Amino acid sequence: MGKIYVVSISSGNILDMSNRAVKAIRDSDVVVGYTGYVSLIEELLKDKEVYSNSMKGEIERCRYAIKRAREGKKVSIISSGDAGLYGMAGPIFEMAEDLEVEYIPGITAAFLAASQLGAPVMHDMCTISLSDLLTPFEVIERRIKSAAEADFVITLYNPKSLGRINHLQYAINIIRLYRRDDTPVGIVKNALRKNQKVIITTIKEIDYDLVDMSTVLIIGNSQTYIKDGYMITPRGYKY
Amino acid sequence: MGKIYVVSISSGNILDMSNRAVKAIRDSDVVVGYTGYVSLIEELLKDKEVYSNSMKGEIERCRYAIKRAREGKKVSIISSGDAGLYGMAGPIFEMAEDLEVEYIPGITAAFLAASQLGAPVMHDMCTISLSDLLTPFEVIERRIKSAAEADFVITLYNPKSLGRINHLQYAINIIRLYRRDDTPVGIVKNALRKNQKVIITTIKEIDYDLVDMSTVLIIGNSQTYIKDGYMITPRGYKY
């Protein structure tokens, strides 16, 4: 019987993958994913059939994974971070009617990035994707406003692509209505991958040119501060 | 030179830990943690000095970890889920002035739970802890209201303890002001541990007696639905 593993590959570095994720890929006949992510896990792909394509090829990838599983193959479909946040778990569970599906969780980008900044999250947090390919921008805007108002630590995913270079600045301007000018912001590009770049700055000094699709931004809450090069959000303990 | 690893142990099952987390613990002389979490990783603790204590012993644990690291030891201080969300990363970075600290990220409870429910998160999400030990309940209440209003998928952490048995019901009643009665709710106790329990229900039918401190609840957004025993939040793809 075929089976689909929806595998969260975290940073894509084997060190950050769970043992369950590595095992699932090793157990698979076929590995399906975005070309950029497949190349991160090359060392696991010897003797595997690999099907990869580009961004916006998500549904095609799901269809292929389901087809091969129906033909009796074990198929891993991979997502970076956790597959259950803006990843492949959703479309697979929506489409894979009669197949066995196992979703293997992983480390989502917010925490990969956090680990390189100090302890920037720590308290109630939210994630918001700035991609409006699948979500009306009014919905995104409302969420940014609510999250800023209620003092959540906010991680912004998909902050920029060629088609939308101004969404990030627009989002930050909304958040600034509710946060101090010196609110710390952590910017992490390629977290725990080759070419990682880590910047700790403030909300009024963000360098927008540094940001691309492989970047997440963590915006501190009203209590977040910078100390010794670390970004720290207190949980509230007294020392 | 001593060093502190802040290690996220995810579910506590070695299968869910990252290879980086396992390596850090193997590399440590001393392992520090809440008694309940230390017992989950017993197989990694042979020949280690272990310091554990009970809930509310967090600061004592940090002090001990820092003391032993200052004495030249390699020390792992562990948190379940991701140590950077309601865990030990914060207090360690706040207190460990002159020490080398490495925070190793992991899978936070929201995604451990999600993986057992289908694809309940998928879209913009937030986490809110209902523990008011360190946070005024008014702050928590405001976040619940904002998150519900802005249609985030909401994961509730620390939903119940002996001292606060009604907070959860109070929180759910706020959320119900903004969500349909049949909004799906996933309840997962001991995610990916022994004695795991998984329930998919609706917001009006939550059985509050099932919930304890080892439980998280994932409340769907306005689009979440139940299909074939899975809880699914669509990302917005057309098929």
TrEMBL record, chains A, B:
Name assigned to this protein: Cobalt-precorrin 3 C17-methyltransferase
Any GO BP annotation: cobalamin biosynthetic process
One Gene Ontology MF term: methyltransferase activity
CDD domains in alphabetical order: Precorrin_3B_C17_MT
Keywords: Cobalamin biosynthesis, Methyltransferase, S-adenosyl-L-methionine, Transferase
Record's signal peptide: none
PANTHER family for the chain: COBALT-FACTOR III C(17)-METHYLTRANSFERASE-RELATED (PTHR47036)
One Pfam family of this chain: TP_methylase
Residues of the Tetrapyrrole methylase domain: 3-206
Gene3D superfamilies for the chain: Cobalt-precorrin-4 Transmethylase, Domain 1, Methyltransferase, Cobalt-precorrin-4 Transmethylase, Domain 2
InterPro entries: 4pyrrol_Mease, 4pyrrol_Methylase_sf, 4pyrrole_Mease_sub1, 4pyrrole_Mease_sub2, Cbl_synth_CobJ/CibH_dom, Precorrin_MeTrfase
Pathway info: Cofactor biosynthesis; adenosylcobalamin biosynthesis
